[in-house]
Design goal:
32% of the residues lie in helices and 22% in strands. By secondary structure, it is α+β, with helices and mostly antiparallel strands. The chain has a single domain, classed as Aminopeptidase (3-Layer(aba) Sandwich), CATH 3.40.630. The chain has a 5-stranded mixed sheet with strand order 1-2-3-4-5, sandwiched between helices. Strand 2 and strand 3 form a beta hairpin.
């Protein structure tokens, strides 16, 4: 089942983010404090859009944290965070959650979805398999200070 994110989901999503991103292949170092801060900031966007996927026991196994973004041609949804419990990956939860978000876009007259991911991680292949393409006209720049 997929449903809208609810405030009461925060702690479960924090745990899920940490479990997902601190293991292979990402090997990040999220703490409860930093993950809570991140997801709380995203939820506070006035144009926040969030959905969670539940398993048969009604436990949250995947989540999308996104926001509606104004664009000159047509508003779109920018996916800020998207994570699936490692033990539940490759079982269709991510695909169903992504499809749910895409249907949300269609129903609300939005152009589509955009996101950033690491080109060297398996997530890139997941997105390409689900119809996403690299945008050659856009680059992501970064400067460490």
């Amino acid at each position: 089942m997929i449903r809208e994110y609810q405030y009461e989901d925060l702690n479960h999503c924090v745990e899920l983010l940490i479990e997902t991103l601190n293991c292979e292949p990402w090997k990040e170092n999220w703490t409860a404090e930093t993950a809570t801060r991140l997801l709380s900031e995203l939820v506070e966007y006035s144009n926040f859009i969030g959905f969670v996927a539940l398993d048969d026991d009604n436990a949250i196994v995947a989540a999308i944290f996104a926001r509606k973004k104004t664009w000159w041609t047509n508003d779109e949804v920018f996916i800020e965070e998207f994570f699936v419990k490692p033990s539940m990956q490759n079982k269709g939860y991510g695909k169903r959650l992504l499809n749910y978000l895409e249907n949300y876009c269609k129903e609300n007259g939005l152009a589509g979805t955009t996101l950033l991911t690491n080109r060297f991680m398996p997530a890139k292949n997941f997105y390409e398999k689900n119809g996403y393409a690299l945008a050659d006209h856009v680059i992501f720049l970064y400067k460490e200070v």
